[in-house]
Write a structure and sequence with these properties.
Largest sheet: 3 strands, antiparallel
Distance between the termini: 38 Å
Strand order of the largest sheet: 1-3-2
Helix content: 55-70%
Order of helices and strands: HHEHHEEHH
Shape: globular
Radius of gyration: 19 Å
């Protein structure tokens, strides 16, 4: 393995994120879940039932991608679908009781996935939040921070 001290911060961040997601998905598979499925369940649990298009927009994925995620969730009994009374073409998606129970277990897996890493993690969390806000604003069409850093000023904006 190459010397990690020689890696750039983006490479370290990307590799760590992929490794955490792989480990998380391995643990979640026992529950019939994936990382994407947990995100969908989190939104549905917090905001209630909604049509697939709205859920896709909230999670910031394409409707087709969300459709695949919902099909897996439905196959495992984690969601229910009900035809809209106003528009028979669309379906409202909701978390089932089994899905709520799986979500509780998924949250526990999330908390325990990287034991001991939470020590001194607040500064890292603040920086990661700043990276997400900074790069996500351009990708997801949100408003950019007031001042963009000059090319030589590579510091991230402070978290709000």
């Amino acid at each position: 393995m190459p010397d990690l001290n020689d890696w750039t911060t983006p490479r370290l961040l990307s590799t760590a994120a992929r490794l955490v997601e792989h480990a998380w998905n391995e643990e979640l598979a026992v529950l019939g879940l994936t990382h994407a499925g947990v995100i969908a369940l989190e939104v549905l649990d917090a905001e209630g039932s909604m049509v697939q298009a709205r859920l896709s927009a909230k999670v910031q994925v394409q409707a087709q991608t969300m459709g695949q995620t919902l099909s897996r969730l439905e196959a495992h009994g984690h969601i229910t679908r009900e035809r809209s009374r106003l528009d028979g073409r669309s379906q409202k998606v909701a978390v089932s009781e089994l899905g709520k129970a799986a979500l509780v277990q998924a949250r526990e897996i999330d908390r325990n996935l990287t034991p001991g890493v939470d020590i001194g993690v607040e500064e890292l969390r603040d920086k990661l939040t700043a990276v997400i806000r900074w790069l996500g604003s351009a990708r997801w069409g949100k408003e950019m921070p007031e001042r963009a850093p000059a090319p030589k000023d590579r510091a991230l904006p402070e978290p709000s």
